[in-house]
Amino acid sequence: LASAAVADLQHLFQFDNRLTSAVSGDTLTLTRIVGTTTYTSTGRIQSALVCNAANTFESSASVTSLAGTGVDKTISVWVRMTSAANGAVWSIGSGAAVPYTLFELDYRSNTKLRLVRLTGIPTSGTLTSTSTFAADGATWRHVVVTYDETGGTSAVVTLYVNANSEASASGAGSLSNLATATMRACWGRGLTASFPGSIDDLALFNGALSSAEVTTLYNNGLVSTSADEISYAAVVLAHLALNGAATGLSASAGTASYAEGQIGKALVLDGATHFTFD
Question: What's the whole-number average pLDDT of the chain?
């Protein structure tokens, strides 16, 4: 991602057997309020949080970094569906009864993804994906919602899945009233049902990523913006992305080949091909 997008990253929940944010200096934590906390080792990137249709997690404080007039927003998450049932992936909102502030991503029994807005830009309503996404229990999908506001009077909201724009809407209004809103994972406010699957790398930006940046995020992940790499970059001696190219390595025997990896492409070690550092 571009340095501007990196600076916009406010919260990152990697769910590597913890519910704390991985962004250096960020104290936001997700707390289990219903059900159990279960992780799976077969996450999109390392482990992932299992939403077992009965658990709820909520942030320890309001997501004030996303509030305010004219503040753009992006929410990114990897999802894997295990059954075709209604359930909320995440929601940002406040209040216990209608009318309440709500910005929510749902998975529907018709295997489509839906963004719900009960208040704000562009008027209350929903955005539903054009494509369907089968609940096969194996395939990870990257879902991004961008909210590009102009002067607190109008905005464009776009729903991306695997870097493809699935739905978009524009209009007048404001989501500046998110100042007291909390973040929920695996459960919603508008749809009080748990997401039927697992989620990984839930990231919140206080900026609207461009379509090119959404594609970069889908292909390369958030490796360059994780707390480990930001906080301890000085001790990193080498970082080999191996995303379809063995940059920094030379094959001393055999030919380099690649397969689908956890982030983009991965180098295949076949027992016959050898590499040396350049």
Answer: 79
Q: Are 39 and 47 in contact (CB under 8 A)?
A: yes
Report whether 158 contacts 143 (CB < 8 A): no
Calpha distance 39→228 (Å, rounded): 20
CA distance 231 to 44: 23
Higher pLDDT, 67 or 218: 218
Tokens of 66: 């996303």
Residue 31: its H or E element? strand 30-34
Residue type, 148: D
Instruction: Give the tokens for residue 209.
Output: 């990523």
What global pTM score does this model have?
Answer: 0.77
Which of 87, 205, 54, 125 shows the shortest CA–CA distance to 116? 125
Neighbour tally for 115: CB within 10 Å: 23
Q: Would you call the peptide bond into 122 cis, given omega within 30 degrees of 0 as the criterion?
A: yes
- Cα–Cα distance measured from residue 39 to residue 169, given in angstroms and rounded to the nearest whole number: 35
Distance CA 124, CA 244 (A): 43
Q: In the chain, what's the furthest Cα-to-Cα distance? A: 66
Burial of 220 (0-12, 13-18, 19+ CB in 10 A): middle
**Residue 93 to residue 272: CA distance in whole angstroms:** 54
Q: What are the pLDDT digits (tens) for 27-51? A: 889 999 888 899 999 999 889 999 9
Closest CA to 113 of 92, 135, 128, 134: 128
What letter does residue 4 receive in the DSSP assignment? H
- Got the DSSP string for 73-115? EEEEEEEEESSS--EEEEEEEE-SSSS-EEEEEEE-TTS-EEE
Which amino acid does the sequence have at 36?
T
Question: What stretches of 87-210 show up as alpha helix (H) in DSSP?
Answer: none
